[in-house]
User: Fold these one by one.
Assistant:
Number 1:
Amino acid sequence: MKLLVTFCCIALLAGCATPPPPPEIPAVVCPEPEPVIAHDSAERHALNALLTFQAGLRALPVAELNRQLTELGRQDGSAPVLLRRAMLLAAIRGSGDLARAQALLDGALQSTLDEEQMFKPLAHGLKLAYGDLRRQDDAMDKLATQLREQQRRNEQLTEKLEALKTIERSLSERPAAPANK
């Protein structure tokens, strides 16, 4: 009984102990582009139009995305057009499309026109996001390759195991050799 009481006291005291504070994680500081604030309603309208365009892309079928991409390819190389083309390529996500989208965003980021400066923060954010998507796609491709290789190895091992089972069955089916006396 004393042992039980002692054990309960120890358990209660252990429950009252405060855990050590979690280690401090240093804050990650990412360089951000200089914010450009849209001052007039035309600038706000242009940015809202791009954001609305981006939001509507998920609902479109690939054929419509390709059609819009072809149409935009015929237009000038202004920053809003480059951003829309990049958004379309990222929505299509074919082979190399994210890299092409990033290249288009580089063009928008390199614009020196005053009226296109307000698009630079959006272009910068999209470029970073598309870079993350590319890294994720590359990692998924690598994992898919590893999975296929592992499945191939598993199939080979299963075939070897079945062959060994067949050999074992054939050995046990043979009549026992007469014992020499």
Number 2:
Amino acid sequence: MFVETRLLDRPLRWAMVGGGQGSQIGHSHRDAAQRDGLMTLVAGAFDVDAARGRAFGSALGVAPERCYADFATMFAAEAARADGIEVVTIATPNNSHFAVCKAALSAGLHVVCEKPLTLDEAGALELAALARERGRVLGVMYGYTGYEMVQQARAMVQHGELGEIRVVQMQFAHGYHAAEVESNDPGTKWRVTPAVSGPTYVIGDIGTHCFQMGALISGLDVEALTCLRRSFVASRAPLEDDAHVLIRYQGNAVGTLWASAVNVGSAHGFKVRVVGAKGSVEWWDEHPNQLKVALAGRPEMTYERGHGYLEPSARFERVGGGHPAGYFDAWANVYRRFALAMSSEPQAREHLAGQWYPTVEDGLAGVRFMLRCAESADAGSTWVDFK
């Protein structure tokens, strides 16, 4: 489904909090949000250093007077403008998400927030209620869900092709932090600092990605879980760099999840496998254009992105079959859906029909997962109820 024509009459006026010079995640958001011309970056509070943030924003083409020292100043100034911002992305460290989200929603803005949405469940529930009250979209950036073959796997489960789901295997286990890299890497340093990162490191940073995708594909709700976590790099304690989770879903299904930053030799190691009574599917982000499919009594197959046999929700492609699509394409797919959901233009709902995007409910589930894992591990890996 190539889309070269404009989906909206005008792009949404968009701003960022965080994501300044040298931020990989900031670049990912900017590339994705503006890829389809559905959002235009017009303002930002890019950096805790106001002068540095202004210089960076100006280099991006943002008017210097709309490069603000902090988010509160930006929201107030933009609200006074006839051409003020409509959407804001929050790409700051974890401990700031709640305050910025609350201020943005209170200012009547749509929001895209990095995960975890908050560091406590009460805060996530408050934001969910505020988004509903203000009639605003609060999206959480689970960018990997933008891959077409993830949506194919989800559709196959929904249509019963795998039968009753029995097992969900999830992992996001890389090896880049097997040594104490944070001593020379500020981007890792705050992630292993409890006051900034919250009660977990790899569970909240990468484990929530595979947890959310396991839920998305399987459609299952979690009943309880138990977690074992370790700090193999001792200076990271009490935060973990390796965690193993057992999950009991409502009904009869079970799940396992491995989140790790010390899996030496692994480039990324993000895989989700869902096994049902009649078949299984497996997706791996290092080979995102393929989905392994095995149905009982038939040889294993590989479904390829961009082909006519896929479900309609999986044909949201930017390039034809046989050409590889990747990380930036997946993020742009998610941002396209965010923009359509946020727009008040009548045609936006038509373009969004049949498409899925990660909402505040996914963010709330991710916060619960992070908190319940920490609770279980700190109590000797006891089973804890999810809700």
